Description:
By secondary structure, the protein is mainly β. The chain has no helices and eleven strands.
Amino acid sequence: QVQLVESGGGLVQAGGSLRLSCAPSGRSFSNSGTGWFRQAPGKEREFVAAISWSGGNTYYADFVNGRFTIARDNAKNTVYLQMNSLKPEDTAVYYCAVARYGAGSGLRGQAAYYYWGQGTQVTVSS
């Protein structure tokens, strides 16, 4: 059974940094695009960032505004989300997801994804 294991969440002060990791177990997803989404209390889940299978293309939500960087290491079968200059409004559960295909702007949409992790909590205090 395939599982996506997220790690790296936690509590951080505003302006701080966190690095989230996503590693699937059970199989490799080196040919698939991978994305990060988040869901804050009382809000719908929203797109944060995505990366193509090769790592050559990245996609970000407008609110990221240069603060986050998505990267992947296919040798380690791991995708990372480096988050800097965190704000209280970044507080949410962050989910990793694996897409049905390898690249394209469609990676911004949740419909592109068919495996989802359980999520990791990120809390940014003011």
